[in-house]
Amino acid sequence: MNLIKILQENRLMKTPQEINLFEETLEKMAKHTNDDNLKNLHLILDDNCEHPEMMFSLVHFLEDFAPQKQIQAFIEVIPQLMITAPEWTKTIHYRIINDESACKLYQNSLELANQKTPHFLYQLLLENVKNHLSSPSEVMLT
């Protein structure tokens, strides 16, 4: 069975079995990382997950990819991700801007994405990144 599909089907983690399946599947994927899965992996994030600590393991897994590839995939799915996971979207956004080198990559990627496919979300995030870069201070998550 497709590992992405298993993660997707168990992302809400309502039962111990779903939690175990999610965790085991993520471990399997970590052994055979594939950049082609990045967009779909981001879309597994869901604010309705009952075990956010497990969902955070997915965030850490995403951060193990090359920053440019992870950031690019994140930007491409932001409009979709904001529907099912606005809190996780903010979490990833803040984690990126709190890393100086990732933040600069993010700024460049957002500018390119907004030129290619203008979207108000890209513009808002870009303004936030520029403000952060002009007066850097670590952004705290609430």
Description:
By secondary structure, this protein is mainly α. It has one domain (3-134). Helices cover 73% and strands 0% of the residues. The chain has eight helices and no strands. The protein has helices at residues 3-10, 16-31, 38-42, 52-63, 67-84, 86-97, 100-116, 120-134. Helix 5 packs antiparallel against helix 6, helix 5 packs across helix 7 and helix 7 runs antiparallel to helix 8 (120-134). It is elongated. It comes from Gloeothece verrucosa (strain PCC 7822). Keywords: Plasmid. This is Immunity protein 30 domain-containing protein.
SS content category:
mainly alpha
Strand content: under 5%
Let me know the number of strands: 0
List low-confidence stretches. none
Helix content: over 70%
Mean pLDDT: 91
Radius of gyration: 15 Å
Number of helices: 8
Oligomer: single chain
Biggest sheet overview: none
How far apart are the first and last residues' alpha carbons, in Å? Answer: 37 Å
Please tell me the total number of domains.
1
Organism: Gloeothece verrucosa (strain PCC 7822) (Cyanothece sp. (strain PCC 7822))
Pfam families: Imm30
Protein name: Immunity protein 30 domain-containing protein
Keywords: Plasmid
